[in-house]
Design goal:
Structural class: mainly alpha
Strand content: under 5%
Shape: globular
Distance between the termini: 40 Å
Helix content: over 70%
Radius of gyration: 22 Å
Order of helices and strands: HHHHHHHHHHHHHHHHHH
Number of helices: 18
Length: about 400
């Protein structure tokens, strides 16, 4: 560190672990909850949960939920809600089937058209919410009914498929191994496994190193600006847990079929949206709108435009989720996306978003979606009926909201 930097370093008050955890319970509580839930189902399913094939299925089954949770977080942070995402998802899947299967349009042309239509649907709903001040609950409830009916009309009440292989690759495809056979054979001998995707393993190691480096960089910035420092022991333990979990998951994927295409899509989108919400002016303004719209407007923020963009973005992500869902099923059905909006909204609230707006993180939404996904998967493996599954998920959602309200009152 240069002498100029040393002069700019502000003293940091020592932090005790207990007080630090209590003050950051929202962030770290999610991580601990996910680990506890995974360990519970790993034991209850006799080790099935963390098998390579099941981990791959977890990503394939929950990809569209996670993708829509990214957009839903922004909508909720802005102080609104979108009940139409499940219907829009199903409608875009139906539209893609008409374009690709019935009209035989090239996949490379159909996908951009579907994404554009999704963005247009989101923009139409955002227009009424932003510029006419109609409550988002009403507008998107109407959208849910409209696009549910539109799916039935477009498919004429029947399933349409199958899709070509290049379209199915959106969901069921895997990134090919780019490493040489000699390097791969060396890893096979080292880890004593029958097969391994060396490229996936290298990507996983690189990702773990990047995560640790970013955390170290953020810690140095906190020290420089006098922000409350995370206890050193806890910082090291947290990074070891995150990096270890990432390496474990990637190793499991590498010994099966490698990295699924949807995992790469989710990872890229998560990084992009985390950067937008945490590092850009537009991200900070969205939080300001959700925190206090009148104050944000008085400070010069164009609140209507931000709300409009939030719904437009949600429509585009719902369209992408619809394409991935249709590709996974290899067919478009009139009932696709039914009640999916409930899982998406639940994932965002479980991930720490506030009902009042202005609070929430992209990583929290992703973790919340994984909590829902692990619960669904674990309960299904255990043979728990869908009736009990719905009850348990409802109780978990209620507990997350009660926890949010309790934290607000405690801080107040």
């Amino acid at each position: 560190m240069s002498q100029a930097d040393q002069e700019n370093v502000h003293p940091v008050t020592p932090v005790y672990l207990g007080r630090y955890l209590l003050s950051h319970l929202r962030e770290y509580g999610l991580l601990f909850a996910l680990i506890a839930i995974m360990l519970f189902f790993q034991v209850m399913t006799d080790g099935t949960l963390l098998k390579s094939v099941n981990i791959t299925n977890l990503f394939l089954q929950n990809s569209y939920i996670i993708i829509m949770a990214l957009g839903m977080l922004i909508v909720i942070v802005a102080g609104h809600i979108d009940l139409s995402v499940g219907s829009v998802m199903g409608f875009i899947g139906a539209f893609s089937a008409v374009l690709i299967v019935q009209w035989e349009l090239p996949v490379a042309l159909a996908i951009p058209l579907c994404l554009a239509l999704g963005a247009l649907i989101g923009a139409a709903q955002g227009y009424w919410v932003a510029y006419w001040q109609i409550p988002s609950f009403i507008v998107t409830l109407a959208g849910m009914l409209i696009f549910r009916g539109a799916s039935l009309w477009l498919l004429e009440g029947q399933s349409v498929g199958p899709f070509p292989k290049e379209f199915q690759a959106l969901s069921t495809g895997f990134i090919p191994d780019f490493m040489s056979p000699g390097f791969r054979d060396g890893l096979l001998a080292l880890f004593e496994v029958r097969r391994i995707n060396a490229g996936a393993l290298v990507v996983g190691v690189a990702s773990a190193l990047v995560v640790v480096w970013l955390n170290l960089r953020k810690r140095q910035q906190n020290v420089r600006y006098g922000i409350e420092e995370e206890p050193t022991g806890f910082f090291v333990a947290r990074n070891m847990i995150v990096a270890g979990a990432l390496l474990f998951v990637v190793f499991k994927l590498a010994t099966f079929r490698g990295l699924p295409n949807v995992l790469v899509t989710m990872a890229v989108l998560t990084v992009i949206y985390a950067f937008i919400t945490e590092r850009t002016t537009i991200g900070r303004r969205i939080y300001a709108v959700g925190g206090n719209e009148k104050a944000a407007k008085l400070s010069g923020i164009k609140t209507e435009r931000l709300t409009f963009l939030a719904f437009t973005n949600m429509g585009m992500l719902a369209a992408l989720a619809g394409l991935i869902f249709a590709a996974r099923l290899n067919t478009a059905t009139p009932k696709a996306g039914f009640a999916v909006e409930l899982d998406v909204i639940a994932a965002v609230f479980i991930g720490g978003a506030s009902m009042a707006g202005g609070v929430g993180q992209i990583i929290g939404a992703v973790v919340g979606a994984f909590i829902m996904g692990v619960m669904n998967n674990g309960m299904s493996i255990m043979g728990i009926g869908i009736d009990y599954q719905q009850i348990i998920k409802g109780l978990v959602l209620l507990a997350a909201v009660v926890f949010d309200v309790y934290n607000k009152r405690k801080r107040g």
